[in-house]
Amino acid sequence: xxxxxxxxxxxxxxxxxxxxxxxxxxxxxxxxxxxxxxxxxxxxxxxxxxxxxxxxxxxxxxxxxxxxxxxxxxxxxxxxxxxxxxxxxxxxxxxxxxxxxxxxxxxxxxxxxxxxxxxxxxxxxxxxxxxxxxxxxxxxxxxxxxxxxxxxxxxxxxxxxxxxxxxxxxxxxxxxxxxxxxxxxxxxxxxxxxxxxxxxxxxxxxxxxxxxxxxxxxxxxxxxxxxxxxxxxxxxxxxxxxxxxxxxxxxxxxxxxxxxxxxxxxxxxxxxxxxxxxxxxxxxxxxxxxxxxxxxxxxxxxxxxxxxxxxxxxxxxxxxxxxxxxxxxxxxxxxxxxxxxxxxxxxxxxxxxxxxxxxxxxxxxxxxxxxxxxxxxxxxxxxxxxxxxxxxxxxxxxxx
Length: 400
Prior knowledge:
By secondary structure, the chain is of the alpha+beta class. Among the domains are: 2-142, no CATH class; 275-400, Heat Shock Protein 90 (2-Layer Sandwich), CATH 3.30.565.10. Helix content is 63%, strand content 11%. Helix 5 (101-114) packs parallel to helix 8. It is rod-shaped. It starts with 6 loop residues before the first helix and ends with a strand. It catalyses: ATP + protein L-histidine = ADP + protein N-phospho-L-histidine. Keywords: ATP-binding, Kinase, Membrane, Nucleotide-binding, Phosphoprotein, Transferase, Transmembrane, Transmembrane helix, Two-component regulatory system. Its EC number is 2.7.13.3.
């Protein structure tokens, strides 16, 4: 019996291999249990009636047989809490009582449904082991011993196979349900991640596009604030520049929204996007705002650069000029663009770090530029060199 010692703690606690029987019955469970009890009682009654005419046992033994059978049927109400314990109790009941056959079948079926194969094999083996003394104790006069033995063993095996099939089907349904729930959760996580990435993309584009325009507006508005006595013509011109800058900022905002709605780098937005050939216009805007900017364009034909490449170079230069305007207002800014097909494009922006009054910044623009460059397979570096100048250097690939 040493190989069955592992069963004892599970029987005492009503639990095996991580499965715990329910402590509360639902309305459906009550209905099933009532039907099972009635079927087991009818089977026991039929066995008692069939045994009565041919029984040669004393009346006291027959009465004890019926009492044990009734008790076995009553114990079926415990099959959900202690299925293995009930099946083990049914072993001596099956040996002592023929009317307990229905309760024994229900207990064995319950174990097959609720417990793994190892447990079912042990319990079924114990019940088969008591068949021989049971049939010898109560032989059927119309059937031979071996015939009755074969029929009983086959009945037990079919009952157990049916129970294991029910268990496998329940596990399959549970697995499919868990898989569906997990897929639903994963889909929600993917949607949430997509929303998060879209928010980051919108924030990056908004910063790259609007920071330049708003910094220009800040410079012109600051001039009006500190010089309220400027001539009327200069005042009108400055106000016109502010109005034009605000209008351009709105146009840039519409462009960004158009690109984001289309959601692809290869699509064409509603409005034309900036290209490499538009760098001169960007530099001229900064010069109009009072900055000293030099542009050294060393690309033979800027108009032949791919649209995505030209747009990224434009945004990087735009952010570099915006940072220079914030942190080195009166300093000279040098912009150099060089390269070509096969070699890639290199953008260098440099300016001193000690001149002018800085507009507060968070540094997220440079982080966004680094991500923009890395997304297209390029690289970007920035920092202060040995001469005290802040330098921004970016390289973007240009296919041959």
